[in-house]
Amino acid sequence: MSAPALASDDGDIIDSRKVLAALTAKRWWVLGSVVLFTAAFTGAAFLMTPIYRSTTILVAASNNQGSGGLGGALGDLGGIASLAGINVSTKTSMTEEALAVLKSREFTERFIADENLMPKLFARKWDAASGKWKGEPPTPDRAYRYFNEKIRSVDQDKKSGLTTVQIDWKNRFESAAWVNELVHRLNQEMRTRAIADADASLGYLDKELQSTTVVVTHDAIGHLIESQVKQRMLATVNKEYAFRVVDRGMPADADDPIKPQKLIMIAAGFTLGVMIGTIFALVSGGSRRQTVESER
Fold first, then answer.
1. Selection from 41-50, 76-85, 115-124 with the highest mean pLDDT
2. Element (H, E) at 153
3. Tens digits of residue pLDDT in 40-71
């Protein structure tokens, strides 16, 4: 009975017994490669700094509906509402604005500065003993890009209306504290903006009210003033003005980092070791056979 064989791409016939013989002859090389790569990946998995994730889930606050319905009912007075700075957009657009603020450079840089995160974000460049930077200090723009691309992520589910904010960081307690503080600051920022807008609108509407003598216009402006007073009141008393917290960010368990995934890394090291060892054994065996045949 003929020995089993495999056909290669170039038409040569590879005897499977020769392949097995080559692997057997170089079995210690294969075993060494497996041990080496598995040990290296295992060491890396246990030596790498673990990264923990804290997540908070948000839903848009209902009071963001603003003056949408009122703006539509005013008809010709919609121009006055626009001049007064009254937002007649939908709840969705208000939510999009809040998310844009959350991811904006100005908001993020202010958060990093207020929380004094620069030494933590660039710990290798910070000399804790002297309280000074080693060499050129990192810029706020670099801190924003690092925080925005590597640490914070924001995802909005259009179907459910839920927004997920995540912080990935090496300190699990700081990760939870940062994600909750970001949401708190965002609500505070949107409240401040809403109050300022309402105050500006009320000042303009009050002047228009004093100058008009048309009863219909007078009543309509009165409704606009009433809506802005209501918006100002909601922004003043409602702490969760832009988003309501559905699930507050909590510290992850110490043994539950998102990376490194130790088992996956160990398995990857084992697999890579087998592949490298096998390739080396086959190449080495083939080279030796070619040398012997050439000497003949």
1. 115-124
2. strand 152-156
3. 877 776 777 899 999 999 999 876 444 444 44
How far is residue 31's CA from residue 281's CA, in Å, rounded to a whole number? Answer: 11
Q: What are φ and ψ of residue 74, in 5° steps?
A: -80, -15
Tell me which CATH code domain 52-247 carries: 3.30.1890
Whole-prediction pTM value?
0.72
Other Cβ atoms closer than 10 A to 182 = 21
Q: Find out whether the peptide bond into 50 is cis, omega within 30 degrees of 0.
A: no
Q: How many CB atoms lie within 10 A of CB 110?
A: 14
Contact predicate 195/158, CB 8 Å:
no
CA nearest neighbour of 219 among 64, 45, 33, 70 = 70
Domain ranges of the chain: 5-48+260-295, 52-247
Residue 211 token pair: 């100058």
